[in-house]
Write a structure and sequence with these properties.
This protein is α+β, with helices and mostly antiparallel strands. It is built from three helices and seven strands, in the order H-E-H-E-E-E-E-E-E-H. It is elongated.
C-alpha cells in the first residue's frame, strides 16, 4: 500500500469508530430517557407506548391499598386519575394527598406498573413537573366549569 492509501484507510477507520461510538451513545440515552406525562395526557392516550415514562401529581385520598409488598394507589392531577401498582418499599414521606412522581410503564389493563416512586421532601415542596400538572389541570377545570354569564 502506498502512504496515501494507508492514510485514507486510517481516516476511514477512525470515522467508522466515531460513528459507532455515537450510535451506541444515542441508543443508551434513548433507552434511559423517561419522559414526564400528566394523568390527563395518559387518559388522552398521549403516553409513550411500550416505553418507561414518569407520571406525577397527587396521591388520591383514601386510595392506598396494601397487599403484601404490593401497594396500589391512584395518582391524580385533579382532573384525571390513573391507578398505580408498585411492588417495593415506599419512601417515608409518601402519603395520601401529597405530591409524587412515579416512573414505570402503562400496562394494557390501564394500570401503571411503577418501578420507582419519588415523594416530596417537606411540606412546601412538590416536584416542579407535578406542580405544573396540578396547576394546568386546575386551570382547565376552572375554564370548563365557569358559568357563562350574559
Amino acid at each position: 500500500m502506498k502512504p496515501r492509501q494507508k492514510r485514507i484507510a486510517l481516516i476511514a477507520g477512525g470515522l467508522a469508530s466515531i460513528a459507532l461510538a455515537v450510535v451506541l451513545a444515542l441508543n443508551a440515552l434513548d433507552s434511559n430517557i423517561a419522559l414526564y406525562v400528566t394523568p390527563t395526557e395518559v387518559a388522552a392516550g398521549k403516553a409513550p407506548q411500550g416505553k418507561a415514562f414518569r407520571i406525577g401529581g397527587l396521591v388520591k385520598e383514601g386510595s392506598i391499598k396494601r397487599q403484601d409488598m404490593t401497594v396500589r394507589f391512584v395518582i391524580t392531577d385533579t382532573a384525571k386519575e390513573i391507578p398505580v401498582a408498585y411492588t417495593g418499599i415506599l419512601p417515608d414521606l409518601f402519603k395520601e394527598g401529597k405530591g409524587a412522581v412515579i416512573q414505570g410503564r402503562l400496562g394494557g389493563d390501564g394500570i401503571f406498573a411503577a418501578t420507582e416512586v419519588l415523594a416530596k421532601h417537606d411540606e412546601n415542596y412538590m416536584p416542579p413537573e407535578a406542580q405544573h400538572a396540578v396547576d394546568q389541570a386546575q386551570k382547565a377545570q376552572k375554564g370548563q366549569s365557569a358559568p357563562a354569564y350574559k
